[in-house]
Amino acid sequence: MEYGAALALAFGGDTARAEALAEDLAKRFPEDTLVQFNYLPTIRAQLALVRMDHSKAIEVLQAASPYELGTPSGNAYSPGLYPVYVRGKAYLAMHQGGEAAAEFRKILDNRGIALNEPIGALARVGLARAYVLQNDTAKAKAAYQDFLTLWKDADPDIPILKQAKAEYAKLQ
Known about the structure:
Elements: H1 2-11, H2 15-28, H3 33-50, H4 54-61, H5 82-93, H6 97-109, H7 111-114, H8 118-133, H9 137-150, H10 159-171
Helix pairs in contact: 1-2, 1-3, 2-3, 3-4, 3-5, 4-5, 5-6, 5-8, 6-8, 8-9, 9-10
């Protein structure tokens, strides 16, 4: 639970509280593989993105690469693909569409790991944005359409939905 809170705070830009929770996790679980090679790199990479240090985010996530497609047994919460998602966001920020697309595609190709995590849907928007960077309008439109179809009954005031609709409209 502390990981989820720290990651949510990092996504929300509350760096001080996210860092405090990450440091607490690091101190309490120094030999826990999941904490050291998934949770902490993901939190720290997201914090690097907040600070606009995109290459640092990629660097920090190298530790997670061997583990990110794993699903820990006995753990109802499987965070395996969050490093992939954050890495995809970093590549988008660096305007590296091909690399970003590959990361978001990993999430979509491993739905059995993503399950009902929000990144399963958000990867579609990331993929669309990656295709835009690659000037592949047809694939970008298709990825946006996939997301918009998936979220057709969602609250229309959700910020990511509004952003995706606006970005999709620009492609028309």
